[in-house]
Design a protein that fits this description.
single chain; about 120 residues; alpha+beta; S16 Ribosomal Protein, Chain: A; 5-stranded mixed β-sheet; 5 strands; structural constituent of ribosome; ribosomal protein; Ribosomal_bS16; Small ribosomal subunit protein bS16; ribonucleoprotein
Length: about 120
């Protein structure tokens, strides 16, 4: 059975509150889980102690059983010192979008067309 340590969303609209849970990877995000391992409240200040609470012993148990943490939970584990920090690269983040690429291409064509007659006049 593929196990995940992930977030299960609770709370009302625009007031999220998450439970850190160990669950079967095939179950829905807010569906059945095996054990609640902690809580995460993103509405609290980043330096608040109550923002992330985890039962570290149980998290380590599930990791030893082969459970894979999701990206966000992996960041929590790194911050708590449970798992080693990993280098992340978002190669697409700095890349312009489709519309921006089209605008840049049109701008380059206009500049090339505007510079071409000026270069011909200068060479004569």
């Amino acid at each position: 059975m593929a196990m995940k340590i992930r977030l299960a969303r609770g709370g009302s609209k625009k007031r999220p509150h998450y439970a850190i849970v160990a669950s079967d990877a095939r179950m829905p995000r807010d569906g059945r889980f095996l054990e609640k391992l902690g809580t995460y409240n993103p509405l609290l200040a980043k330096d608040s102690e109550d923002r992330i609470k985890m039962n570290v012993e149980r998290v380590q148990y599930w990791l030893s059983q082969g459970a894979q943490p999701t990206d966000r939970v992996a960041r929590f584990l790194e911050a708590a010192g449970i798992s080693p920090k990993t280098e992340r690269q978002n190669l697409k983040k700095g890349e312009p979008g489709k519309a921006a690429k089209e605008r840049a291409a049109k701008r380059a064509e206009r500049e090339a067309a505007a510079n071409a007659p000026a270069e011909e006049a200068a060479s004569e």
